[in-house]
Amino acid sequence: MGQYAVRATLEFDFVESVVVADLDLDAAERFAANCGPKAHAAHVEVTDPGRLAELMGDADVVLNTVGPFFRFGVPVLRAAIEARCDYIDICDDWEPTLEMFELDASAREAGVVAVIGVGASPGVSNMLAVEAARELDEVHALFTGWDLDSASPEHHGSEPSAATVHGIQQLTGTIRTLRDRRFVDRAPIQRFDIDYPGLGRYPVWSIGHPEAVTLPRVYPSLSSCVNVMSTGRLTIFALRRLAWLIDHGWVSPARVASWVEAGGRTGTSDTQELGEMLATGDWNKPPPLFALAEGSKDGAPARVGAAFTSAPLGGMGGATGVPLAVGVALLHEPGERRPGVHAPEGVFDPDRFFELLAPRCMPARTSPSELALVTRSWESVSLVEKLRTLGGGT
């Protein structure tokens, strides 16, 4: 994910230099050499605050892609604040998200702007939620969601990827969601039935993620906010059994992460899946990456869905790393600085976010409304018809 973020960041004219800092200096040097003269390599042990401060002292912004974030999110942000260096990351764990919000006062005092969770989910999903919510007069519930079968991380090396470890972490123990206007900690993989405008009703299942704890900060009127996944019932059955084994101490999360990756599930990209669903007409789940807002419009109950219609090339790496680079560009744009710790929906305009991201997707989109396709319960047009007009994922 860091590789895709670096390449995309270097495309912006305002970027003078990028330091690729990694534990494996040889790998960093090889990668930087392939990125052109503006990329340089450096060695860093991410648990060494002194070395982090040394590197960040000469930087304008640090892009943190070191996962899993329940281990490495808070210390890297703390180092950035101490170095007075702006910060942006792809944190996808809700627990460190809350811990990083507690550093808000320190960031404001240091004049540091920190934006956490600027990837696919969270990140794109948060922007989709804003697009959906602003169509309503009142917003009562927000769902952010994605298809588990198209969310397989690339696997490099003998150890399971941080993304897989993260996924196992968020499918076990308890997760925090907003229910009945209060935050509650409950077991994940709980079923919800959503009615997606222009598609119909589908089952989805809860999984731990930051959106459920960040969106209520922007929408205090919410009574419910949950991050969900869609997949087949056999997968849900297997995940619940694996979670039970972990929660009861029969097997370690790391072992299960290795099993998942050894299973060889490669998944498909969001764009590929959209194309396959359009080609076959077999639309048996919500969009691969979406947000759903429920509330009222003109005094009547209403629902709005916002679907991501394309994605950067590179699977999960591109879908996560390229939005992070777009976040760097938004931090650089002129305007009032807002020091502190924020989620993307608290500081970024979704139209500008999607405007910068649209040409970096495949197929490229020409406008924010094409990339974040909105369907409304009070309209008769279906999402499939709208996607076919766009060309869908084909």
Descriptive report:
This protein has 394 residues and is an alpha/beta fold. The protein folds into two domains: 2-119 and 314-356, 3-Layer(aba) Sandwich (Rossmann fold); 124-308, 2-Layer Sandwich (Dihydrodipicolinate Reductase, domain 2). The protein has 16 helices and 15 strands. It has helices at 2-10, 25-33, 49-56, 69-83, 94-101, 104-110, 124-133, 162-169, 211-218, 233-247, 253-262, 270-280, 315-332, 350-357, 368-371, 383-390, and strands at residues 18-22, 39-43, 61-64, 86-89, 113-115, 138-147, 175-179, 182-186, 191-196, 200-206, 224-230, 289-297, 300-308, 340-342, 372-376. Helix 1 crosses helix 13 (315-332) and helix 4 (69-83) runs parallel beside helix 5 (94-101). The mean pLDDT is 90.
List keywords for this structure.
394 residues; alpha/beta; Rossmann fold; Dihydrodipicolinate Reductase, domain 2; 2 domains; 9-stranded mixed beta sheet; 4-stranded parallel beta sheet; globular
